[in-house]
């Protein structure tokens, strides 16, 4: 019996060994031995082999067979990697999900810059106006059907009216139809002008260049001129010994815009300004520009309201419900006294320092300069 | 300039869509390639361009007429073509005594030439010379670069990046495993670059991953590096800039150990320990009789003090 047991043990071992050998053979068909591992970028289906091609160097003039062998090995490794990706079945085809490509390649166009808001968008933001959702079709009484809001065969077409009543205060001999057409042309022209102005503003913002030069060369004449001026002055001797081109003129307006009164000028005016200065310094009450203060206050309040409304709408959208803006007050603005106090508080700080900065004669202002 | 494009507002929806397709975007379109013949292109160079066009279809344009320009001297006409056809990759073929069988391969940034590399063709076997079945057009090829030369010099590195850019095709999220049909293999050896393309045959192996056999299919070129016109470092860096929106988002409050354990951080408010919920020891609770006696004791103590 023991002999039989030993024989069985042997056969089991043999079977295991045979199974292992079979597995190794199978894997051998797809394994490739390389000294250096390949680098894979599966998002681009790319593989880079850094091993020096010693086999090819020996091949000589016609390396076709060696090239094909090398290609086969590399492709096998790439396929092994690809087959390990997570797969799914899409319409009876086996599909592998590729990762993001890791090789960084240059873009073909520059990154789009965020455009500055147009004048209307700024105003809408400030006031908290949001676009109203409008229906596509409007009921037209005249024709008795649903018509589009604007465009061909629109609901209320002004141009198709055959009768216009002369309004009370207008000249009876005036052509009302022509007046209407003229008004429309003016509106269109104004709209176009504003659109171009918005575009100009956006385009001006698009070139915050470094050192004045735009890398791909799209620059206007003024910018190039400015860049050239800056470059001229950026030498150790601040541009004093820079040669000019034969017919080049002096740059105009390149200095700082500050004007100082001459030392011996109009004596009467100087006396008047200095007496005024002393009077303001001695007076107990601070100076206050009421209109400016009130406008500033109103603007701040509007901005706060708009921001609050925007936040509330965002919150309510997230929650799914829709609550009206609670506690919004659009009644009369707060009392004059209250506003003045607040404005007072705001202006108090800015009172003395600017007056203090004006000194007699040419005394230097030591320390920080406050605006 | 795009600002000028917008000054003249498009009057039709189709024109508007056309302009929108061409404007700069966060995630870009697939790069198109234009294949141009020079004034003195010979038959070999023309055939090369035709073969590359077959590989790059439908993301390529083959210009039929000869254009008398010199890319390395004057790039304006290339830039004009690129702007008109919205192609950012190009390949220009020419032939003269000094530079026989010349091929200039290059790419554009913002319709201006970024990189240009001139390659000489030493040996060429065309698609139609190799008689076997080809793969359908528009398949995404696999790219393999062999040889350590591709990382040594800056020229070779740019050439590798340019070749990847040129031949890679559309970027896809999923790929059908049976649809991987051909592979382009570039080997750099002794100053020459061997470009071979093979068709893939998947054979049965014991396990899930198939065994690969290759069959030479397509154009094979032996190239020599000639002149280069590479972009300056800062222009190259500018062209590689990725917009912030596409950068991968960092996950906050999650960190990993050297041993691979993932740690998370939770930020909590300060706890009021006096209101802590502890276990109820019912046995230690004061019974009403005991409580009365305690109160009496306290009262007597207070009277004594006073």
UniProtKB/TrEMBL annotation, chain A:
GO terms for cellular component: condensed nuclear chromosome; nucleolus; nucleoplasm; preribosome, large subunit precursor. Residues 241-251 have a biased composition (Basic and acidic residues). It comes from the Eukaryota. It holds the Pfam family RRS1. Residues 308-331, 357-371 have a biased composition (Basic residues). It is found in: Nucleus. GO terms for biological process: endonucleolytic cleavage in ITS1 to separate SSU-rRNA from 5.8S rRNA and LSU-rRNA from tricistronic rRNA transcript (SSU-rRNA, 5.8S rRNA, LSU-rRNA); mitotic metaphase chromosome alignment; protein localization to nucleolus; regulation of signal transduction by p53 class mediator; ribosomal large subunit assembly. Residues 205-224, 233-265, 287-371 are annotated as: Disordered. GO terms for molecular function: 5S rRNA binding. The keyword Disulfide bond does not apply. Keywords: Nucleus, Ribosome biogenesis. Belongs to the RRS1 family. Involved in ribosomal large subunit assembly. This is Ribosome biogenesis regulatory protein. It comes from Mustela putorius furo. The lineage of its organism: Eukaryota, Metazoa, Chordata, Craniata, Vertebrata.
Automatic annotation (TrEMBL), chain B:
It comes from the Eukaryota. Residues 31-234 form the Brix domain. One of its GO terms (biological process) is maturation of LSU-rRNA from tricistronic rRNA transcript (SSU-rRNA, 5.8S rRNA, LSU-rRNA). Signal peptide: none annotated. Residues 287-298 have a biased composition (Basic and acidic residues). The keyword Nucleus applies. Residues 277-286 have a biased composition (Basic residues). Residues 270-306 are annotated as: Disordered. GO terms for cellular component: nucleolus. InterPro entries: Brix, Rpf2. It is found in: Nucleus, Nucleolus. Keywords: Nucleus. GO terms for molecular function: rRNA binding. Pfam families: Brix. Belongs to the RPF2 family. This is Ribosome production factor 2 homolog. It comes from Mustela putorius furo. The gene is RPF2.
């Amino acid at each position: 019996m023991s002999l039989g047991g030993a024989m069985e043990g042997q056969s089991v071992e043999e079977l295991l060994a045979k199974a292992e050998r079979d597995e190794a053979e199978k894997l051998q068909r797809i394994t490739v031995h390389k000294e250096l591992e390949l680098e894979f970028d599966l998002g681009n289906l790319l593989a880079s082999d850094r091993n020096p091609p010693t086999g090819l160097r020996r091949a000589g003039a016609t390396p076709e067979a060696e090239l094909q062998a090398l290609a086969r090995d590399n492709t096998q490794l790439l396929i092994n990697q690809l087959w390990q990706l997570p797969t799914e079945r899409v319409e009876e085809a086996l599909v592998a999900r590729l990762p993001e490509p890791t090789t960084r390649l240059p873009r073909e166009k520059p990154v789009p810059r965020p455009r500055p808001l147009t004048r209307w968008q700024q105003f809408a933001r400030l006031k908290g106006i949001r676009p109203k959702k409008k229906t596509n079709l409007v009921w037209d009484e005249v024709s008795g059907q649903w018509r589009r809001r604007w465009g061909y065969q629109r609901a209320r077409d002004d141009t198709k009216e055959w009768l216009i009543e002369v309004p009370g205060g207008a000249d009876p001999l005036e052509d009302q139809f022509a007046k209407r057409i003229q008004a429309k042309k003016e509106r269109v022209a104004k709209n176009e002008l504003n659109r171009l102005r918005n575009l100009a503003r956006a385009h001006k913002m698009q070139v915050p260049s470094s050192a004045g030069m735009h890398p791909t060369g799209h620059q206007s004449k003024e910018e190039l001129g400015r860049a050239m001026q800056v470059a001229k002055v950026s030498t150790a001797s601040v541009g004093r010994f820079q040669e000019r081109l034969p017919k080049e003129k002096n740059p105009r307006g390149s200095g700082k815009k500050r004007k100082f009164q001459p030392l011996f000028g109009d004596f009467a005016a100087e006396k008047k300004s200095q007496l005024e200065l002393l009077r303001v310094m001695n007076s107990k009450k601070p100076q206050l520009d009421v209109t400016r203060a009130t406008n500033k206050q109103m603007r701040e309040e509007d901005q706060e309201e708009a921001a609050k409304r925007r936040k509330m709408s965002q919150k309510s959208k997230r929650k799914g419900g829709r609550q009206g803006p609670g506690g919004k007050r659009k009644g009369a603005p707060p009392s004059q006294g209250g506003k003045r106090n607040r404005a007072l508080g705001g202006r108090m700080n800015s009172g003395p320092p600017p007056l203090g900065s004006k000194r007699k004669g040419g005394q230097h202002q030591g320390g920080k300069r406050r605006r | 300039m795009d600002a000028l494009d917008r000054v003249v507002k498009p009057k039709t929806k189709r024109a508007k869509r056309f302009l929108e397709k061409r404007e700069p975007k966060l995630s870009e379109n697939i790069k198109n390639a234009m294949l141009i013949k020079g004034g003195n292109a010979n038959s070999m160079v023309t055939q090369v361009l035709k073969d590359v066009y077959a590989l790059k279809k439908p993301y390529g344009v083959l210009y039929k007429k000869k254009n008398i320009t010199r890319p390395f001297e004057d790039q304006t006409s290339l830039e004009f073509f690129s702007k008109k056809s919205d192609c950012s990759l190009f390949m220009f073929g020419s032939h003269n005594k000094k530079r026989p069988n010349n091929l200039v391969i290059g790419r554009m940034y913002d319709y201006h030439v970024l990189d240009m590399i001139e390659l000489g063709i030493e040996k060429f076997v065309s698609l139609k010379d190799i008689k076997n079945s080809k793969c359908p057009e528009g398949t995404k090829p696999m790219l393999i670069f062999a040889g350590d030369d591709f990382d040594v010099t800056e020229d070779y590195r740019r050439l590798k990046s340019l070749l990847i850019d040129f031949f890679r095709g559309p970027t896809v999220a999923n790929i059908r495993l049976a649809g991987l049909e051909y592979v382009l293999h570039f080997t750099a050896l002794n100053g020459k670059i061997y470009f071979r393309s093979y068709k893939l045959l998947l054979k049965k192996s014991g396990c899930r991953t198939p065994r690969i056999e290759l069959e030479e299919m397509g154009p094979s070129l032996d190239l020599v590096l000639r002149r280069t016109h590479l972009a300056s470092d800062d222009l190259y860096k500018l062209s590689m800039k990725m917009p912030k929106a596409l950068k991968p988002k960092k996950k906050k409050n999650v960190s990993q150990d050297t041993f691979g354990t993932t740690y998370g951080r939770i930020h909590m408010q300060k706890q009021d320990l006096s209101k802590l919920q502890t276990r109820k020891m019912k046995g230690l609770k004061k019974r009403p009789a005991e409580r009365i006696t305690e109160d009496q004791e306290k009262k007597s103590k207070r009277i004594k003090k006073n």
